Amino acid sequence: MHDLVIRGGLMVDGAGSDPSVADIAVKDGLITEVGSDLGAAKRTIDAEGLVVTPGFVDVHTHLDAQVAWDPDLTPISWHGVTTALLGNCGVTFAPCKPGDRELLAGMMETVEDIPREAILEGLSWNWESYGEYLNELQHLNPAINIAGLIGHCALRFYVMGERGVEEDATPEDSARMAEIVEHAVLDGAVGFSTSRFLGHYLPDGRHVPGTHAQHEELVAIADVVGRHRALMQNVMNFGGDYDGEMALLRKEAKKARVLFSHGTGKSSSYGNKVEASIMAMRQEGLDVSAIAIPRASGFVTGLQAYLPYRGGLWSELHDMDFDARCHAIRDSAFCESLVAQAKERGALISEEQVFYLGDGDRPNYVGGPSESLAAMAAGRGLHPSELFLELSRSTNGKALFTLRFFNQNLDALAEAISSDFCIPSLGDAGAHVSQIMDSGWATFVLSHWHRDAGLFTLSEAVRRLTSMPAAMIGLKDRGRLAPGMRADINVVDLANLSERMPEIAHDFPNGAPRFIQKALGYRATVCNGAVILENDELTGARAGQVLRHRA
Predict the structure, then answer these.
(1) Choosing a second label site near 345 at 20 to 30 A (CA), which of 51, 200, 226, 463?
(2) What ranges in 88-170 are assigned the alpha helix state H?
């Protein structure tokens, strides 16, 4: 008897094949049969009229600490993700000497907005090497699968100490780092991550270790990574040295598979420039890929979150708790002063880049120029700050907006994420927890880019969410629906699929706030054969595994 049969759904296998109606049988955590009339099962899921896909793979998260106090790994487990990659952007908690714990926690706070005290309190710190860190993760019994990258920042400080922040590595330093990376990969890390982004800082204001590393150091690491068929993950400084950074990617790609973070500007010109450079490398046979957040992205703002104005009374408002903010903006004299100061000082970002998400259950992520805060305010003869306050009052503080820093042009973004070398991802789950909420990106790909916009066929959208990222991180038994594959499966009501409005929760250690975002339309999510989510709610089952690299 089967453990589980999913019957009558429109199966999208993840490999790019045309969808077809089929039953899927599961036994001992594996898909055992795909066909019709598969016989009796201990449990049956009726999927008639629904879409059945492999579980989604999220290759850019920062859940390295959160898994310790939230083994359900929300929000991504609400959005069909069954495998998450940790350790991106070079910031990890291993390798780590006991005396470096506070430094790594502080670095994660300044780089990724994960509260330092939550990290120090929530983690056991029962490790020194990256392999020991992976062992600890398995003891946490996560709800979904997790894999990890060893990070350059922690590695550099482990080998070089304080010298690792600003000094060049010696040949001996580079050799030692490469040796540790090799041990980490042999212990299960799926690769190595580094960041050259100038916006990543230590608490003292210096750039994180590795930001200015010489090419030779990274090529030495790429050599051992490639030797074991693992992955090099990069956050690049394209804005500061485009040609030099592309040259570095080329050097790394001659040694290993390379993945970098991508984005677009106000037009398609930048994306086209990147595509030309990368496609030239790929035509040479180099394995270079990219990920990009599949929607316009930036800070979430509103009365319950980050405010779009600063200074004077706006800073006073910022320092209040939510209830006090709601009370304060009902004082007409106070609001008049807020508006006057907003006119004088301006916003943190142009109000033309601020868009109203709404105050209902489903956010609007695709508003055009006429739906910016500036345009909406002009249409009513108001200053943008007046409209911000008015919408906040009328919704009892529930109105939310997004500050579009990245991917402002949706047409340019569509070109980027449909390129052969680029897949949607980069939701940063677990990071920027009180500022950004992009963890529902996979739901957005299916609901917007496939269903509403028609950019991808259903088969192609699912392939980019499943088998493509699985192959990218070296997973051979996930990302497809076929006999012998691990039973990571989604059952989706595509017609009603949607992200829900982000909301603030105070569920981190010490009550620290974060944004969460649930979904609508996930009839079931199965991880390693266990139903971990049903009708959009987690079941409490924790069947995830630590997925270790195997060359």
Answers:
(1) 200
(2) 101-112, 116-122, 130-139, 152-160, 163-166
DSSP secondary structure letters along 59-85: --B--TTGGGT-TT-TTGGGGTEEEEE
Is residue 422 domain-resident? no
C-alpha 236/C-alpha 130 separation (Å) is 24
Q: Is 222 in contact with 251 (CB distance < 8 Å)?
A: yes
* Token code pair at residue 393: 């009052």
Give residue-wise pLDDT tens across range 228-279: 999 999 999 888 899 999 999 999 999 999 999 998 877 778 888 999 999 9
Round to whole Å and give the CA distance between 380 and 378. 5
Residue of 23, 144, 75, 59 lying closest to 519 (CA atoms): 75
- Grouping H, G, I as helix, E, B as strand and the rest as coil, residue 427 is coil
- Residue 96 token pair: 């780590």
Give the tens place of pLDDT for each residue, 340-375.
999 999 988 899 999 999 888 999 999 888 999 999
Cβ-based neighbours of 140, under 8 Å, separated by 6 or more:
67, 68, 71
At 243, is the secondary structure helix, strand, or coil? Answer: helix
**Which domain, by its residues, includes 308?**
300-403
Kindly report the CATH number assigned to the domain that includes residue 9: 2.30.40.10
Give the Cβ contact number of residue 364 at 10 Å: 13
- Is position 327 within any domain? yes
- Decide which of 403, 419, 442 is a domain's last residue: 403
**Cα separation of the two ends of the chain:** 35
Does any domain span residue 181?
A: no
Q: Is residue 112 part of a domain?
A: no
For the chain, the domain total comes to 2
User: How many whole angstroms separate alpha carbon 91 and alpha carbon 107?
Assistant: 8
Same structural domain for residues 394 and 489? no
- Cα separation, 526 vs 494, in Å, equals 17
472/90 Cα distance (integer angstroms): 18
Region 87-104 average pLDDT: 95
Answer yes or no: are the C-beta atoms of 426 and 279 closer than 8 Å: no
Alpha-carbon span 502 to 514, nearest angstrom: 10
SS3 198: coil
Asked whether 97 and 155 are in contact (CB, 8 A), the reply is no
- Of 403, 436, 465, which residue is a domain's last? 403
* Closest-CA residue to 68 (of 149, 142, 150): 142
Q: What are phi and psi of 546, to 5 degrees?
A: -80, 115
> Cis (ω within 30 of 0) for the bond into 54?
no
φ, ψ (nearest 5 deg) of residue 26? -130, 135
Per-residue pLDDT reduced to its tens digit, 292-350: 999 998 889 999 988 999 899 999 999 999 999 999 999 999 999 999 999 999 988 89
- Which residues on neighbouring strands pair with residue 54, listed in sequence order? 489
For tokens 């020991």, what's the residue?
Answer: 132
425 touches 469 (CB < 8 A): yes
Q: What burial letters (b/e) apply to 310-329, b meaning 16+ CB within 10 Å?
A: beebbeebeeeeeeebbebb
